[in-house]
Amino acid sequence: MTEPRPKLSWSDLSGARVGVWGLGREGHTNLRKLRTLGVDPVLVDDHPADPGVLATGDGGLAALERCDVVVKTPGLSRYRPEVARLAGLGIPVVGGLGLWLVETDLRQVLCVTGTKGKSTTASLTGHLLTGLGYTCLVGGNIGVVPYDPAGQTDFDYWVIEVSSYQATDLPCTPPVTAVTSLHPDHLDWHGGVQRYYRDKLSMCTQPGADLTVANGDSEVLRQHERLLGPRVEWVSQDEEPGADWMAPLGLLGRHNRRNALIARRCLAALGVPGASDEDALRAAAVGYQGLPSRLAPVGTIAGVTFVDDSLATNVLPTLAALDAFPGRRIALIVGGHDRGIDYAPLAAGVLARSAPTLVLTLPDSGPRVRAEIERAAAGLSVTDCSGLEEAVAAGFRWARPDGVVLLSPAAPSFGRFRDYRDRSEAFARAVRAIS
Q1: N or C: fewer beta carbons within 10 Å in the chain?
Q2: Which residue, among 387, 379, 341, 338, has the nearest Cα to 361 in the 3D structure?
């Protein structure tokens, strides 16, 4: 998004004719927020499920055209023709997170984005801030809306995970931001990989931006340094060799070591005194609970470790998951909804492992994964499976006596499962069936 973004706040909407477009989780929060301002908005959704909500294609768009401002939910693409129609009529189409940032003390806010790793980095930063004695809300795309009137609103710091969808709504940026990774994703929403990159990183260059703490191990990010704002500090997973302050976090993988280092660098940039104190950081790290479905150990049976990484919906996190178990046999369960992503990098990553790797493919993208692996090296072990239970059982037989069965699908879950959580639960049930 290159055009100027409307710099409106929630307070500016008091007394205005406002439309709420999209009534998912965030849309309902937008509605609650507007009602605290005395605003009774027009409600529009593509597929309305509640009374009083207009369908976008059946009178809803016409109703939005009579509004002064439209507050859009992030899941609705900013490149839809309806958005262009509203903008052409001079109606600002804004997002709730952007409205909140405009009237917030940005010195207390850290925004974190990245194709993968942003949730873990945001949660790590929030945990360390809490352990250092500060009150902190971790929210945004991670699940908590920071302006929800039903929640607490007074914190020392706000750590906000920003999706590529939300990034296009931000008219300003905190002085400190973090970018954990960059890899093609959500191309249907953005309309192409380069636009996705520009949208994803656009929060680094909005008014107020100063420093971006970025993944220095990402070649793609370094190639797009010009999009990272006025100043960039690169962080590599090999920094601080021998440092043990992060040991209590219990994180798997070198990429998560880098995520912890990014969190620490952000704390230092925010001026948090404890960021330079190794002992204080180690004490603050105690008690961290890893996020579900992100390299989460499910159990060990007969020496075989089962790991749930269901949230790995593209190749980048799956490569990181493979890297988390150097020297160990891995039965990798991969495949899911086929959105046409390139699996050649995954094949190269499997081929590069020094330890044995068995790839167990699932529908629907399984055949394309197999084709790429066979193209890379015909001798690599690939087994097609009809479902998770079959794959888990086959992986267990192969991985004994001391290997890893790793669910890291490099594909979304929909079509076969409700969401990634449902896929995680199916994996856990299959593991229990073995035990």
Answers
A1: C
A2: 387
What pairs with residue 160 in β-bridges?
Answer: 111, 139
Q: Which has the closest alpha carbon to 403: 364, 340, 356?
A: 356
Are the C-beta atoms of residues 360 and 395 closer than 8 Å to each other? yes
CA–CA distance, 144 with 102 (Å, rounded to integer): 18
Any idea how long the chain is?
A: 435
Q: How far apart are CA 243 and CA 131, in angstroms?
A: 18
Q: What is the model's pLDDT at position 435?
A: 82
Q: Report the C-alpha gap between 341 and 351 in whole angstroms.
A: 19
Residues in a beta bridge with 368:
none
Q: How far apart are the first and last CA of the chain?
A: 52
Helix segments in 234-358, DSSP class H: 254-270, 278-285, 315-323, 344-352
The residues near 321 (Cβ < 8 Å, ≥ 6 apart) are: 253, 295, 307, 309, 312, 406, 408
**Single-letter residue type at 139:** G
Half-sphere exposure (Cβ direction) of 231: Cα atoms closer than 13 Å: 8
**Beta carbons of 170 and 101 less than 8 angstroms apart:** yes
**Low-confidence residues of the chain: pLDDT under 70:** 1-3
- What proportion of the chain, given as a percentage, has pLDDT over 90? 90
> Per-residue pLDDT tens for 155-168?
999 999 999 999 99
Single out the residue of 92, 107, 96, 105 nearest to residue 36, CA to CA: 96
Give the ranges where 204-343 is alpha helix by DSSP (H).
219-223, 254-270, 278-285, 315-323
DSSP annotation of 115: S
How confident is the model at residue 317, as a pLDDT?
Answer: 92
Query: How far is Cα 88 from Cα 105, in angstroms, rounded to an integer?
Result: 32
Q: Specify the amino acid at residue 51.
A: P
Could you give phi then psi for residue 161, rounded to 5 degrees? -80, 130
> Residue 242: which residues within 8 A CB-CB, separation 6 or more?
none
Q: What is the three-class DSSP state of 137?
A: strand
What share of the chain in percent tops pLDDT 70?
99
**Dist. CA 129–CA 345, nearest whole Å:** 36
- Measured between alpha carbons, how far is 173 from 188 in angstroms, rounded to an integer? 26
Q: Is the bond leading into 41 cis (omega within 30 degrees of zero)? A: no
Give the span between the Cα atoms of 191 and 414, in whole angstroms: 21
CB 426 within 8 A of CB 333: no
